[in-house]
Design goal:
- The chain is of the alpha+beta class.
- It has 2 domains: 97 residues, wza like domain (wza like fold); 82 residues, Outer membrane lipoprotein wza fold like (Roll), CATH 3.10.560.10.
- The chain is 24% helix and 27% strand.
- The chain contains 4 helices and 10 strands.
- The strands form 3 sheets. The protein has a 5-stranded mixed sheet with strand order 7-6-10-8-9, with helices on one face. A 3-stranded antiparallel sheet has the order 2-1-5.
- The termini are far apart.
């Protein structure tokens, strides 16, 4: 006998899946830059063997038959479409129509650690600044050092940077330039 599940569970699942798909679609339309971990659906018109779902590897590349290794990380889906179409035109009779759609945005995540109410990893689909990230994490707990928050950012060459964020000054309307827009992989540390 199968375990009973609430009817509400079955009703909410399609709604959740539609919402996640809509988020991915919104991100693609806004000029979203691909990140390692994102999942792409590549469709080549009239070339079923070339159409596939593919993962952006940790090095930022994807592999596509005939086109080879292609850097996707840091590019928009439209830029990947254009390059794929160009590369595949070397092997196909006519320039192919290629569509690249974002299936899942697993690579665009930030991390909020320390004295916040809900520390953890959070997906971001729109430009998100430090104040917004702290809000997503449930705000600061009463023991947080408001003037000592930092954003840790790793660059493509492996170097890391510590960017100070003065919450106590930003909340009063000063030092707004420290409320930077976060990038994929940034870590907000609240001591």
């Amino acid at each position: 006998m199968l375990p009973k599940r609430p009817v509400l569970h079955f009703l909410l699942w399609p709604v959740l899946m539609a919402a996640l798909s809509a988020q991915a679609s919104d991100a693609a339309e806004a000029g979203y830059q691909l990140n390692p971990g994102d999942v792409l659906n590549i469709f080549v018109w009239n070339e079923e063997s070339l159409s596939r779902e593919t993962l952006v590897r940790p090095d930022g590349y994807i592999s596509v038959p005939l086109a080879g290794q292609l850097r996707a990380g840091g590019k928009t889906p439209a830029e990947v479409e254009e390059e794929l179409s160009e590369r595949l035109s070397n092997y196909l009779k006519d320039r192919p129509t290629v569509t690249v759609s974002l299936q899942a945005i697993h690579g665009n995540r930030i991390f909020v650690l320390g004295k916040v109410n809900r520390p953890g990893e959070y997906p971001i689909i729109r430009p998100t600044d430090v104040m917004q990230a702290l809000s997503i994490a449930g705000g600061l707990d009463p023991f947080a050092a408001e003037g000592s928050i930092v954003v840790l950012r790793r660059h493509g060459d492996g170097s890391q940077e510590s960017i100070p964020f003065r919450y106590n000054r930003v909340k009063s309307g000063r030092d707004l330039e420290t409320n930077i827009v976060l990038r994929a992989g940034d870590v907000v540390v609240v001591p």
